[in-house]
Write a structure and sequence with these properties.
Number of strands: 42
Structural class: alpha+beta
Strand content: 5-15%
Strand order of the largest sheet: 25-24-23-22-28-27-26
Helix content: 25-40%
Shape: elongated
Largest sheet: 7 strands, antiparallel
Length: 1861
């Protein structure tokens, strides 16, 4: 029984305290006057009676009633029911003298109410610990009625009765009469009330407050508030009604059941206490809405406005909502309850009867929804309770991590916060007890969860369940159905308006006290009414696992994985290591899944139980790696209990290191966060303690009932505990003590055990290292190697501590201290919680340091031994094959090659096997960086992966840190990028010490940037590295002339190659003694002194004999051959020039004195003297004056190249201003000479102009630009990079707007519109030609264009490399690739180069000469000039011609290969600029558009692209001929025998290779005579070169032919044993296999087969070229016989139209086998008549396979008739001789028409060629000088020609063939 009310208080207005602002209240009377012992009087009641402050009002208000809640210091809640009414206050008295409340009662009944009269509030307050609001309202109302209506009942007795009422706290299930009497109260004023006491007081009472709250705020808002309250946010209610504030707060608490709110709870907060709102702790508070403005600045409070129906959540507050699907289900259920019409709102015939339940019922239904919600949230919570003590009091802990893990809600914010909250802690304390009375929630969570899961989604059933629960809740609140005899008097209407009301009387304290005393005395004599609580064992409900079933499919899938895990473990323990290795990666992958991890723990546990815990090294390693992988994915919480399951195992598995020393698994799995998490250890400890305590009682129970053993086993710890608690009161004191002691010692022994366990896992193996708290897992060394240094972070820190430096003790003690502190903290916490006695606790603290110290000592021994173990067998390092002369610099470092952004190799979305990551080694040789290894994925483990690139091509190297393998930790690595479009992203294996990695980087750097060109591979190859580094000692400053003489003596052959690093212009280091000074003029150029002029630069026609030899050598150089071919000036032996020639070969630069970067012999106009040249050269940058490099055979227009003009020169050239100059009128004369020079060039051209105006430029533009679609516009492309012509080139060329100054805006003068085109166009840099005025009299025009500079090319190339070979994978590879490709602007640069080249080609084709004069004349100029020649002259599209083009334009004319390729240390800062590569890319674009015009294949271009930067050959080293001569490169020394194995020139190499195999040959080659190519240059027509994107991982780059040819695919024998059908098919992986080899085109394939057949037949195989020539010849003859106009040949479709040729079907180098017939048939059928075409097609195919007919050869370098002496005693006979350079042979036939070759002399065997003498039978008429002999290794051939000239020509031709070889 409990008192209904504890105190009755009368509170009135205190007029005395009214000074500033609000008045105050004061307690006028309180009963009883002394505090109850069990319940002291609460403070501050007067504040709560008038929460918004005590104020006087001008009129009477009706009485008000509300209930405020006060919380006392013991967190008991007191309900203060306040009934407030108003009394008149006499103003005069109020101001004159303060009076006490109601002592003097003055009668002013008669006087009317004056306007100045004020009314003061007065409150009747009941204070109770019970929340019966209605009863309080009635009782206080009754007192007020008695007073106001003047009833004849003594107020004292009513108050006395009210304070002495006692009522039962909870009702029984069935109300009986006696019960009802106890519940009926009567205050002695003819009233009667029955109090509805709830049946079960643990359920909250809400009447209809919850329903009202939802009505006011709506579903979503209330749910937000609900979640905010549970996750401990601050909540503030606002309303203008106090009662509603109280109701809302009460409702929120009712919703939270079964959790209890334990923070500040003030439903009505008085105005004086508003600062409480800024408290830092969570709260639920209500405030009157007049204070709304004061709440504005609260930043972290959720404010619910009840009157406005809004909930505002501030920005900084994040409310975690319920986890889905619960949130959705709750919402649906709530809307079914609150808005039943919603369901049927759309029905055509809605049921008429639907209506919501009554408010009270709705209230209970809402609460039922939340009750269900909690049952679902907390289902199975009892399975996660750990009971750690049963006696004397149960101590219970909740295993939060396990609960979250099993529910699969570890990530869920809401539940995690709730479980960490105070409310839940209270819930565990209150409801965790195993033996207590139970309520509705316990039943629901135990028995109904299954039902709730089953009914999910079925709305009707859910609603039925909600209604059932609501019924129970309603019943609990209103146990008595019909309350009869409920009478309470109320005052009459309008009672509060009576003016003549007396004040409330003062009550007689004595009387009230007497009534109270009597009642208490009576109570003490009565027997105590003890209501026995029904205690029982709390049901646990089904375990979580049973509830949370996953879908079956996933189960099946994981079942297979678990099978794999089990098999692998059993293989390990059966020592089948190979089998285990195969499964291992799959197991590591499976470990991502929780089931697999649990399975692993179980399996290992079984093996421990079978005493298999002692392992050998390999087994130990496997088990450790599995454990590490398993723990790696565990969070610090260990929610799935994996670490918990492994904990006993890590102290079980071990291996013997040496007698008496054992290493346990724990020393290798310390690297995980979970071990440093104290919560994990607590949960583990409690779990173990629970098991031991359970065992303690099980044993004692078993002794008594052995027969019940089976049932006994199944009992959980909670069940045992509740059984014990039931028996506890019946036990004797001694028995109780004994049990308490047993439990305490159990806990204590576990604490010791855990102190040991923790020291195992926290002390690192190598304790000498300083320790860090592990925040990140660093390299887990153990997981891969047996012998390891240490395995904890502590170890990974300071390896630098010097052991002798005295740091050792300090360090180890540091570790020890840290561990001791950690364990102490743990022990303190768990022991105090589980009630271990203080003595025991002190004992523990003493023990812990000893435990740690002992463990450190054992570890030291283990650590020592473990270092001695041999490392585990890893895959053998594969040695890469090296080139001849290539040497290994650094032996292989073990690394992992990681996937970069290229998808193919990594498997990825493209499919195919994951070749990367691969495990192997990285090798550094003198030439390359090579990775060779095998994929880590065992499914492709047999493949070999090779990735390499030349060291010289390395562009960027950066350190990275990466995770190489799934089961390993972060390692250091390198990312090496190469400009051969390759990337090596490697991670060093942990066995590679970081200093070896450093050594690798240093060596790499040294090799990449040698001090001097002599340090590059092309020089050092085949020598011992020592010599390689020392450049030859030079003679002391030899003069240039002696230098050249020496060169002449030494020169043996002419070889076309060169290059020297270009620095600033320094004069050559010739003799500076005597009078030879070299004053430099202000242009930084060399001005040559007089003396020099006389000696070398005399414009004489004779050349001194001393220089003759040099000249001869220069004559044999590439450019000279080309000049002769083009007919540009001859240099006959007498060196006299024929005056008719417009051009001459000038030797002015033979000493490289005028221009260092030009070749020795140059072509200049015939009329220009050498000394003029010297002066002109100064006007041009780098002295690169205009020289002729090509002449069109048809139009005789010439192409010139030069460097850009110096500013001064331009001014002089065009304005002839007299600029101040060092010498008298020097500028003037120079510019005149320059003009003369250009005029001389123009005069050299035959002028012709036809009347039709065809060759006026305007005509030209319309014809060539507008009509044919091949012309792109050369306007600025808006990108800023690239060349852009500022005005449309067409109009410029026509003379309109020509260079008009942009600012004057006037129209161009008509005079400029010349009727004829200019004879010479100068293509110059826009920036250099500013302000140039055209001179109408001159015959040249300047075309200014914008040029991109080298910087832009570099930047663009970098981006291109990143696009083609990204460093790291991106999410959308194809998109990222295209985007970055566009950003690189590489294609737009190619577009510009092609565009300009085509423009120049057009100009030359129409007969104008062009001078390309851009930048310094060696980058873009070279690109344009070479492309122009390639497009205009078919000769350059042959193998021989292309070589010549590159030698002439790139090598001789000084493109700075060393500088642009950053080949030496000097060039390191400038970086790599791919000017030559850009040119090759342009050639590739043209090749794609005109596949039949080129003799060489695409592979040839890729080969050059790769090797021009590889430094394997000397050809592309150095910056100019001068530098090459200086190094002695141009003419090799006599003594140097050409070693067969090492080719020094790339051209030699290509020639040799071309003889062996048709790699560089394009079978489509069928040129049209004199075809000028005009490729499309729009970006849409350009393709990204596959050289940038393809790779061959099986063999590395295919450009080092010897290496890639080494691996011939093994021919698979037919395997008889396999039943599978045999197939010839093989799989080709795009990035792995070399498609060119595995999938050759048809012709290569046929040639290969032919060769192998010939070998089989024992014949000497014919060279492929001969076979090919025969085939083509036979096809030609066949075509002739058929007489069809169009040849039905395989590829020689010269009759086809140009357009058709460029688009015709053709065989790519990686074409498909069947393309052969396709090309035959499609060509013929489309061009000839069907019948003949088809026939021809078939016939020609057959000829390929049938025997080959002999026919004339295609390649005839030179032919003619000679007499040949037969063999011994044979006569002389005339024969037709053919000299074939390509095959390197001299063939002879009977006559010119003969197709049958009579014999072949192989030039390779020729030893010498000498003038001969006539022998017997020789032709008589011939001059004896016409005889010559050819001496071969076998015999001497005697020849005789018609006359001396012919003989000389033959000798020359054969000689040049020999020298070229």
């Amino acid at each position: 029984m409990a008192r209904l009310a504890d105190y009755f208080v009368l509170v009135g207005y205190d007029p005395g305290k009214r000074g500033s602002g609000d008045g105050q209240g004061q307690i006028l009377q309180r009963f009883p006057e002394k505090d109850w012992e069990d319940n002291p009087f609460p403070q501050g009641i007067e504040l709560f009676c008038q929460p918004s402050g005590w104020q006087l009002f001008p009129e009477m208000n009706p009485p008000s009633f509300f209930v405020a809640v006060l919380t006392d210091i013991n967190s008991e809640r007191h309900y203060c029911a306040c009934f407030t009414f108003w009394e008149p206050l006499d103003s005069s008295q109020a101001q004159s003298h303060p009076r006490n409340g109601g002592e003097e009662e003055e009668e002013e009944a008669s006087s009317p109410v004056q306007p100045t009269q004020l009314f003061a509030p007065k409150s009747l307050v009941l204070v109770s610990r019970l929340d019966h609001a209605e009863v309080f309202r009635n009782s206080l109302g009754l007192i007020y009625t008695i007073y106001v209506d003047g009833m004849s009942v003594a107020l004292e007795s009513v108050v006395g009765n009210l304070l002495t009422c006692t009522i039962p706290i909870t009702g029984g299930a069935q109300p009986d009469l006696e019960d009802e009497a106890a519940r009926t109260i009567c205050l002695g004023a003819g009233d009667r009330q029955v109090i509805q006491t709830p049946i079960n007081d643990s359920l909250p009472v809400s009447s209809c407050s919850v329903a009202l709250l939802f009505r006011q705020l709506g579903i979503t808002n209330v749910l937000h508030l609900f979640c905010a309250a549970l996750t401990e946010h601050k909540i503030l209610f606002l309303s203008s009604s106090y009662q509603r504030l109280t109701d809302a707060c009460r409702a929120l608490l009712a919703l939270m059941f079964p959790l209890k709110y334990s923070f500040t709870y003030v439903p009505i907060l008085p105005a004086q206490l508003l600062e409480v709102l800024s408290t830092p702790t969570p709260f639920i508070i209500g405030v009157h809405s007049i204070f709304q403005s004061e709440t504005q600045e609260l930043l972290d409070v959720v404010i619910a406005d009840l009157d406005g129906g809004t909930v505002s959540v501030p920005e900084c507050v994040h409310i975690s909502l319920l986890p889905e699907p619960l949130l959705q289900q709750t919402r649906e259920a709530l809307s079914m309850v609150l808005d039943p019409e919603l369901e049927v709102a759309d029905l055509a015939f809605p049921p008429s009867t639907i209506s919501a339940s009554s408010l009270k019922m709705q209230d209970k239904e809402i609460r039922a929804v939340f009750l269900r919600l909690f049952a679902q949230l907390l289902q199975g919570y009892r399975w996660c309770l750990h009971i750690i003590r049963i006696h004397p009091e149960p101590v219970i802990r909740f295993h939060k991590a396990a609960f979250l893990g099993q529910r699969g809600l570890t990530e869920d914010d809401f539940l995690t916060k709730v479980l960490e909250g105070m409310a839940f802690a209270g819930f565990v304390t209150e409801r965790g007890a195993p033996y207590r009375s139970i309520d509705l929630f316990d039943e629901l969570v135990a028995y109904e969860v299954k039902r709730m899961r089953a009914e999910e989604g079925n709305k009707q059933k859910v609603l039925r369940h909600i209604r059932e629960l609501a019924e129970k809740l309603y019943k609990n609140e209103n146990p008595y159905p019909a309350v009869t005899m409920h009478t309470v008097k109320k005052p009459k209407e309008g009672h509060h308006l009576r003016a003549q009301q007396k004040p409330f009387p003062r009550l007689d304290e004595g009387l009230v006290q007497w009534i109270i005393d009597q009642a208490t005395a009576k109570l003490q004599t009565a027997p105590p009414a003890v209501k026995a609580e029904v205690k029982c064992m709390v049901p646990s409900g089904p375990p979580i696992a049973a509830i949370m079933e996953r879908n079956g499919n996933a189960m099946a899938n994981s079942a297979r994985r678990l099978e794999v895990v089990r098999n692998c473990i059993s293989y390990v323990f059966e020592n089948k290591m190979l089998e285990a290795k195969k499964l291992f990666p799959a197991v590591l992958r499976a470990m991502k899944g929780r089931a697999a991890r649990q399975c692993l723990a179980q399996e290992l546990h079984l093996h421990v139980q079978q005493n298999r815990a002692v392992l050998d090294h390999q087994q130990f390693d496997f088990v450790i790696r599995m454990m590490n992988c398993c723990l790696q994915d565990c969070t610090a919480m260990d929610e799935h209990g994996i670490a918990a399951a492994l904990l006993p195992l890590v102290t079980a598995f071990c291996r013997k290191l040496s007698p008496g020393i054992t290493q346990f698994a724990y020393s290798c799995v310390q690297e995980h966060v979970v071990w440093t998490n104290i919560q994990f250890w607590e949960a583990m400890f409690y779990c173990d303690v629970q098991n031991h305590i359970r065992a303690l009682y099980l044993d004692s129970a078993e002794e008594s009932h052995l027969e019940e053993e089976d049932n006994q086993e199944a009992k959980s710890a909670l069940e045992i505990a509740s059984e014990q608690l039931r028996l506890w009161p019946t036990m004797s004191k001694e028995k109780q003590q004994e049990l308490i002691q047993k439990e305490e010692s159990t806990v204590f022994s576990q604490a010791i055990h855990y102190a040991n366990r923790m020291s195992y896992l926290l002390l690192p193996l190598d304790t000498s290292k300083s320790r860090l708290l592990r925040s990140s897992g660093l390299g887990d060394v153990e997981s891969v190697s047996n012998s390891f240094v240490t395995n904890s972070i502590a170890g990974s820190v300071a390896e630098s501590y010097d052991t002798e430096s005295g740091f050792e003790d300090a360090e180890s003690s540091d570790v020890a201290n840290y561990v001791v502190r950690f364990i102490n903290r743990f022990v303190d916490k768990v022991c105090t919680e589980s009630g271990v006695t203080n003595e025991h606790l002190k004992g523990l603290h003493v023990m812990i340091p000893d435990i740690v110290q002992m463990h450190i000592e054992t570890l030291d021994a283990v650590h020592r031994e473990s270092k001695r173990l041999p490392p585990i067998q890893k895959p053998k390092l594969l040695r890469p094959s090296l080139l001849a002369g290539e040497e290994c610099v650094l032996e292989g470092l073990r690394v992992y090659l990681l996937p970069d952004g290229r998808e193919e190799a990594a498997g990825g979305s493209v499919g195919g096997p994951p070749l990367l990551p691969a495990e192997g080694a990285i090798f550094l040789t003198t030439y390359r960086i090579i990775f060779k290894g095998t994929p880590t994925d065992p499914l492709v483990g047999e493949q070999v992966v090779i990735r390499s690139f030349p060291i010289a091509s390395l562009t960027k190297e950066k350190k990275i840190s990466v995770q190489a393998q799934v089961d390993q930790f972060i390692q250091e690595g390198l990312q090496l990028r190469s400009c051969t479009f390759q990337l090596l992203k490697i991670a060093f294996d942990e066995e590679v010490a970081s200093d070896s990695a450093e050594v690798f980087r240093k060596h790499l750097h040294k090799l990449r940037y040698p001090q001097h060109v002599r340090g590059t591979f092309a020089f050092t190859v085949g020598q011992s590295p020592k010599q390689a580094m020392q450049p030859k000692a030079k003679e002391k400053n030899p003069s240039l002339r002696t230098l050249s003489k020496n060169l002449v003596k030494n020169a043996k052959k002419t070889i076309g190659r060169q290059y020297v690093t270009r620095k600033k212009y320094t004069p050559p280091t010739w003799d500076q003694r005597g009078s030879q000074h070299f004053p430099e003029d202000n242009e930084d150029e060399i001005s040559v002194s007089e003396e020099m002029d006389r000696s070398t630069l005399t414009p004489s026609t004779t050349i001194r004999p001393s220089d003759k030899m040099t000249i001869n050598h220069l004559v044999e150089r590439a450019c000279c051959k080309d000049y002769q071919r083009l007919g540009l000036g001859t240099l006959s032996s007498s060196l006299t020039r024929s005056k008719s020639e417009p051009f001459r070969i000038s030797t002015v630069n033979r000493m490289y004195a005028i221009c260092r970067s030009y070749p020795g012999l140059l072509i200049v106009p015939q009329s220009i003297q050498d000394n003029t040249i010297q002066r002109i050269s100064r006007c041009y940058r780098q002295s690169r004056f205009p020289v002729v490099c090509w002449r069109s055979a048809r139009t005789k227009a010439v192409l010139l190249r030069s460097g850009g003009l110096h500013g001064k020169g331009v001014v002089g050239l065009f304005k002839s201003q007299n600029a101040p100059s060092p010498g008298p009128s020097q500028t003037d004369s120079t510019s005149l000479e320059q003009e003369k020079y250009l005029q001389a060039v123009i005069n050299s051209m035959p002028h012709y102009a036809d009347a039709g105006g065809r060759n006026t430029l305007s005509g030209f533009t319309s014809a060539h630009m507008s009509s044919t679609g091949k012309w792109g516009s050369i306007r600025a492309s808006g990108r800023g990079s690239g060349y852009a012509l500022s005005v449309d080139i067409g109009s410029r060329l026509a003379g309109k707007d020509l260079l008009a100054a942009p600012h004057n805006g006037t129209a161009a003068e008509p005079a400029l519109l010349r009727p004829h085109r200019a004879s010479l166009y100068i293509i110059g840099d826009k920036s250099q030609l500013k302000g140039v005025k055209p001179d109408p009299l001159q015959h040249w025009e300047v075309v200014p264009i914008e040029v991109f500079d080298v910087r832009q090319v570099k930047a663009s190339f970098k981006k291109l490399m990143k696009a083609c070979v990204p460093g790291c994978p991106s999410t959308e590879p194809s998109l990222a690739y295209l985007r970055s490709l566009e950003e690189s602007e590489w294609l737009s640069q190619i577009h510009k180069i092609l565009q300009i080249s085509v423009l120049v080609v057009e100009l030359l084709d129409t007969g104008s000469s062009v001078l390309v004069s851009l930048e310094d004349g060696w980058d873009i100029t070279t690109q344009v000039v070479s492309l122009v020649q390639l497009l205009s002259d078919p000769y350059y599209r042959t193998l021989e011609g292309f070589r010549l083009l590159v030698e002439k334009e790139w090598l001789s004319f000084g493109h700075r290969f060393s500088q642009r390729g950053a080949q030496t240390l000097a060039g390191q800062s400038s970086g790599f600029a791919p000017i030559f590569l850009q040119f090759l890319d342009c050639v590739h674009q043209i090749h794609l558009q005109f596949p039949m015009e080129f003799e060489f294949s695409q592979y040839y271009l890729k080969f050059l692209s790769y090797h021009y930067i590889s430094n394997r050959f000397r050809t592309f080293l150095l910056d100019s001929d001068y530098e090459r001569i200086e190094l002695g490169l141009l003419y090799e020394e006599k003594g140097e025998k050409k070693g067969q194995q090492v080719c020094k020139s790339i051209w030699e190499y290509i020639e040799r290779l071309n003889k062996k195999a048709p790699v560089f040959f394009n079978y489509m080659y069928a040129p049209e005579d004199g075809e000028v190519l005009r490729p499309y240059s729009n970006i849409s027509n350009l393709k990204v070169w596959d050289y940038y994107t393809e790779e061959t991982l099986s063999e590395g780059p295919s450009y080092d032919w010897e290496l890639s040819q080494g691996q011939v695919e093994p021919v698979e024998e037919d395997r008889q044993d396999t039943s599978a059908p045999q197939t010839k098919r093989k799989i080709i992986w795009p990035c792995y296999d070399s498609r060119r080899r595995l999938e050759p085109d048809a012709i290569s394939r046929l040639l290969e087969e032919l060769q192998s057949l010939e070998v089989e037949l024992g014949q000497v195989p014919e060279r492929w070229k001969e076979t090919w020539d025969k085939v083509k010849a036979s096809q030609r003859t066949e075509a002739r016989q058929e007489g069809s106009r169009t040849p039905s040949s395989l590829l020689m479709s010269s009759g086809l139209s140009h357009h058709r040729r460029s688009l015709g079907v053709y065989l790519q180098e990686s074409g498909v086998g069947s393309s052969l017939n396709l090309s035959l048939d499609s060509d013929t059928s489309s061009t000839s008549t069907p019948s003949s075409g088809r026939q021809g097609g078939r016939r020609s195919t057959s000829t390929l396979y049938s025997h080959f007919q002999m026919a004339e050869s295609e390649n005839r370098s030179y032919e003619g008739s000679l007499y040949k002496k037969g063999a011994f005693m044979k006569p002389w006979k005339p024969r037709w001789f053919v000299l074939d350079k390509t095959k390197h042979q001299l063939r002879y036939y009977d006559s010119r028409m003969d197709t049958e070759c009579k014999g072949v002399i192989d030039l390779a065997e020729v030893e010498s060629i000498t003038p001969g003498a006539p022998t017997m039978g020789a032709p008589k008429t011939v001059d004896e000088k016409a005889f010559f002999d050819l001496k071969t290794t076998k015999r001497v051939y005697n020849f005789c020609a018609q006359d001396v000239q012919v003989a000389q020509q033959w000798i020359d031709r054969i000689q040049s063939c020999l020298s070229d070889a």
